Amino acid sequence: MNIRLRLALRLEQLRQRNMCELHPLEQLFWESTLRCNVHCLHCGSDCMSAAEVRPGVPTSNTQWSGNDMPAEDFLHVIDTEITPHVDPHKVMIIISGGEPLMRNDLAAVGRALYDRGYPWGMVTNGLALTEARFRELHRAGLRSITVSLDGLQDDHVWLRQHPLAFDGACRAIRLCAAETNLVWDVATCVNQRTIDRLPAVRDLLWSLGVRDWRVFGIDPMGRAANNPELLLTDEQFKRLMDFIVAEREAGRHVSYSCEGYLGSYEGKVRDHLYQCAAGVTAASILIDGSISACTSIRGKYYQGNIYKDSFWRVWEEEFKPYRDRRWMRQLEPCKNCKAFDYCQGNGMHLRREDGSLMLCHLNRLGQKS
To answer: Are 70 and 60 in contact (CB under 8 A)?
Structure first.
């Protein structure tokens, strides 16, 4: 590692320590539904294709079914627990699922957030994003959107397990590309089947008007834990890093996702040095009311529940496993790693419930200290 990168990492380390101390809430994820219109092979949420009533926790006026959280419950937390403590314009609310477009009241919720001063966005597979629905959401204040497209037609349909998944994603991308007042990008899950086709995927996306492309591997969680063919080998993972470096050097805005410290690839494959905002500047309200951090975290590192606890008290006083990660130092493979100060044990979503690490990117890149 050259001295310039080492210095930059030290400064970032100090910045992150300060952010953990201050922990300003900047992103709030809302897992609004567990319903979905596709059945992805790599889904980490175990989403449902149709309504399925399950025992839940009492809400303000109903019984949680396990499918959708009532909008009034979420907005109640916004009004009573969050708005009194923040500048709404500085807190981005990201509506996720499942597939958010399964909710018929999505535009109404978005408008309610917009009227309260909150910018809001969503992550979608695009299948249900018709032009009429897109215009409705945009009028409701939609600020940002991420569309998932994971490969060329056959590969995307195979991964998403729906014959119209590719057409839906492409339609959604075209709608976004034609709208100037919107922040958007495309996210691609790279797997063993698609790693060699990334240049063709890039050409497709650029022909559709994409200028911000985010790529990442698939982690061994959820359904992907039973599909080893989805997981990149170490050699393929390094090839993915080299592909991103080459694309960025060619002037295209391609970046690796936020997960994981990447050693000598830091500063080369994304616009910032490694950081995990989970529990530091990012929180989530999950489908059953659980208060957590990034919705990619599948381990039950819950800090409370909106139906029993004050969200703001939890945000201010809990989240210790996220903000002080020295506990990871006691576990392999972090025990004797000289990079721990930079890595801080990797992203929280890569930790199992027992604290063990699913993946170490430094190991995969042959850079373990």
So the answer is: yes
